[in-house]
Amino acid sequence: MVDAMITTTRFAPSPTGLLHLGHAYGALFAQDQARRRKGRFLLRLEDIDPGRCRAEFAAAIIDDLRWLGLDWDAPIRRQSEHLEEYRRLLARLAARGLLYPCFCTRKDIEAEIARSGHAPHGPDGALYPGLCRSLSADQRAEKQAAGQTCALRLDMAAAIAQTGTLWWHDHHAGRIAAQPELFGDVVLARKDTPTSYHLAVTWDDALQQVTLVTRGQDLFAATHVHRLLQALLELPTPQYHHHPLRTDSQGRRYAKRDKALTIAALRAAGRSPAEIQALAGFIPLSK
Ligand code: GLU
Q1: Is the CB–ligand 1 distance for residue 13 below 6 Å?
Q2: Where in the numbering of this chain does the Glutamyl/glutaminyl-tRNA synthetase class Ib catalytic domain appear (predicted)?
Q3: Which long-range contacts (CB under 8 A, 24 or more apart) does 138-147 make?
């Protein structure tokens, strides 16, 4: 049993491509935050997307991180090996009446938004217009019998009614009131896999006793949803540190399409780990 007071951080890439300088910064930052507090640092592979994740990217990520000098304190957790755990969480939420099956295709959603002429937007784009929220049990059974696949969505209004106002703490931004309603009825189980980023990350951070979640500013808003899921599933709330995203010399965020700035390409071009740390803009604080 790990002492819950020990600072535990993690780096949690999705093996959908090679690591770039932005990832190097995120991994080094997470490890450094643990080391400076004499804590633990973990590596987790968020490989739930069967269409985009590839074993060779996972292997390359592990190899690049080791080469960069990262060292994790527990075996790597691979989310794809734990789908049964996520199914159990979904069953708990369903038992509280908080989930509903959604049969919509992307096209159905676009058509409904166009039809209604009303398209409230959240951090991930247009909010789900609620088409499947009020289907009757018969209508659901009929669609299932016809072989239509479904995602599971959280009934956001019902969920918030059960938790009331929630708060979380960000080392950079301070005390934050959670606003999960910004996301509308988020998908918690995708059509192709029995979980989603939000559900899996929230569960894994709790299970692995992560006390400080560090990640890029681009995921700041997602934390509103994670805080809600923690309350619904009675999980502890870690502290958060969303760091600014690193940018290239033109001020653009690093992205998977920037092939020349992957760690693998820079390694192949003869760069050293120390040079990559410097290129990523990482200044260790732990020494
Ligand atoms: N797997 C996510 C990504 O690669 C990061 C998850 C997180 O740090 O919360 O973008």
Answers
A1: yes
A2: 8-271
A3: 140/101, 143/101, 143/103, 144/101
**CB 219 near ligand 1, within 6 Å:** yes
- The minimum-distance atom of ligand 1 relative to the CA of 218 is 10
Across the beta sheet with 212-216, what order do the strands follow? 174-177, 167-170, 239-243, 212-216
Residues in the chain: 287
Beta bridge partners of 125: 122
Asked if 25 and 31 count as a contact pair (C-beta separation under 8 A), the reply is no
Tens of pLDDT along 147-159?
999 999 999 999 9
**pLDDT (tens digit per residue) in 10-50:** 999 999 999 999 999 999 999 999 999 999 999 999 999 99
Cβ-Cβ contacts under 8 Å for 112 (sequence gap 6 or more): 104, 129, 131
CA of 190 to the centre of ligand 1 (A): 17
Average pLDDT over residues 192-209: 98
d(CA 61, CA 66): 9
Cβ of residue 26 lying under 6 Å from some atom of ligand 1: no
For ligand 1, mutation pick of 11, 41, 170, 197 (most atoms within 8 Å of CB):
197
46 C-beta closer than 6 A to ligand 1 = yes
**Share above pLDDT 70 across residues of the chain, in percent, rounded to a whole number:** 98
Classify strands 121-122 and 40-45 as parallel, antiparallel or unpaired.
Answer: unpaired
Tens-place pLDDT, residues 30-39: 999 999 999 9
